[in-house]
Specification:
Helix content is about 40%, strand content about 20%. It is of the alpha/beta class and about 325 residues long. The chain has a domain at about 1-180 and about 230-260: Rossmann fold. Strands 3-2-1-4-5-6-11 form a seven-stranded parallel beta sheet, with helices on both faces. Strands 12-9-14 form a three-stranded mixed beta sheet. α6 (about 145-165) links the parallel β5 (about 120-125) and β6. The longest helix has 22 residues, at about 95-115. The chain is globular, with a radius of gyration of 19 Å. The protein starts with a strand and ends with a helix. The protein binds UDP-4-deoxy-4-formamido-beta-L-arabinopyranose.
Length: about 325
């Protein structure tokens, strides 16, 4: 199939483009490089040894998006493009609501206009709010703690309503847990601009000596060792989950958790990183980070039953692949 991947030069988008190409699909990338780099498109083609078509556009720009749909027969869309920094979303809510909601509306309108009825949406476990773990697709969602999370919940509702109104649409809403790691080549991975917000890239930069030590945000949660528990999933497993969702799409709207179903604490991840890479990661315990929840991990059984997909790569592999990319990465 010919798949339009918005945000295809980004961290998860680039890994998904490789998985799509390796599965025999062809890829059109639309990205504005606000949170990614042009050279990533070249690396995707090098790794997959296949060409991709690329448009540098903002997917909130309806005219630019329609040019792609006019020029190519598109069989499906995977929509990653959007802003995703939780803390930044609190500071710039309008930026987040505009970018993340309008892009979804522009793309689905183009799909309707050009008769494209396969749509896979990049959602997030954040939409569950501070619910009881493990998170299950059928549970009621609670308000999230930030505008980023709200844009994902609202986009899910928009797509659900579209599917109800137009039964020809086949839509998958994929709720990611904590994507980490990198392609085994070490050529692409998570390269946040500035000081990383997320745990794994922060650990990798401490290991590299770029940052002095890891600040562990609280050790007084009711968890195995008091530190936050999350469901870390290898980004290549996540990418393969998108291909499985796309290839198993049926009419209507379908929600899937893409996680391992296993929670790991901050300190367990630090220890796994040190063991995997035979390196020390100094840390100190500091206050909790506002907005954090104690535990977040998936019930991943629905994706296994309906998509035949499970996460295969373990924490050691995630840490080894993350470190290989960090060592290779040149600013
Ligand atoms: C993980 C754990 C922190 C950094 C966020 C978004 C979510 C998704 C993934 C987009 C927590 C602790 C972290 C540090 C720490 N993004 N931590 N020191 O907050 O679970 O999820 O990223 O979809 O929507 O909310 O990920 O990696 O920031 O934190 O102790 O320097 O590590 O408290 O327990 P989070 P994270």
């Amino acid at each position: 199939m010919n798949i339009l991947v918005t945000g295809g030069a980004g961290y998860i988008g680039s890994h998904t483009c490789i998985a799509l190409l390796e599965a025999g699909h062809s890829v059109i990338i639309a990205d504005n490089f606000r949170n990614s780099k042009p050279e990533t498109v070249e690396k995707i083609m090098d790794i997959a040894a296949k060409e991709v078509i690329f448009y540098e556009i903002d997917v909130t720009d309806a005219e630019a998006v329609n040019i792609i749909f006019k020029n190519y027969k598109i069989d499906g869309v995977i929509h990653f493009a959007g802003l995703k920094a939780v803390g930044e979303s609190v500071q710039k809510p309008l930026d987040y609501y505009y970018n993340n909601i309008v892009s979804t509306i522009v793309l689905t309108k183009a799909c309707q206009k050009y008769g494209v009825n396969r749509f896979v949406f990049s959602s997030s476990a954040t939409v569950y709010g501070d619910n009881t773990v493990p998170f299950v697709e059928t549970m009621d969602l609670l308000p999230t703690t930030n505008p980023y999370g709200e844009t994902k919940a609202i986009s899910e509702r928009i797509l659900t309503d579209i599917a109800k109104a137009d039964p020809s649409f086949s839509i998958s809403l994929l709720r990611y847990f904590n994507p980490v790691g990198a392609h085994e080549s070490g050529l692409i991975g998570e390269a946040p601009n500035g000081i990383p917000n997320n745990l794994m890239p922060y650990i990798a930069q401490v290991a590299k000596g770029k940052l002095e030590r890891l600040r562990v945000f609280g050790n007084d949660y009711s968890t195995v060792d008091g530190t936050g528990v999350r469901d870390y999933i290898h980004v290549v497993d996540l990418a393969e989950g998108h291909v499985a969702a796309l290839e198993n799409l049926t009419e209507g709207v379908h929600v899937y958790n893409l996680g391992t179903g296993k929670g790991s604490s901050v300190l367990e991840l630090v220890k796994a990183f040190e063991k995997a890479n035979d390196i020390e990661v100094p840390y100190e315990i500091v206050d909790r980070r506002p907005g954090d929840i104690a535990s977040c991990f998936a019930d991943a059984s629905k994706a296994k039953q309906e998509l035949g997909w499970i996460a295969k790569r373990d924490l050691i592999t995630m840490c080894r692949d993350a470190w290989r990319f960090e060592k290779n990465y040149k600013e």
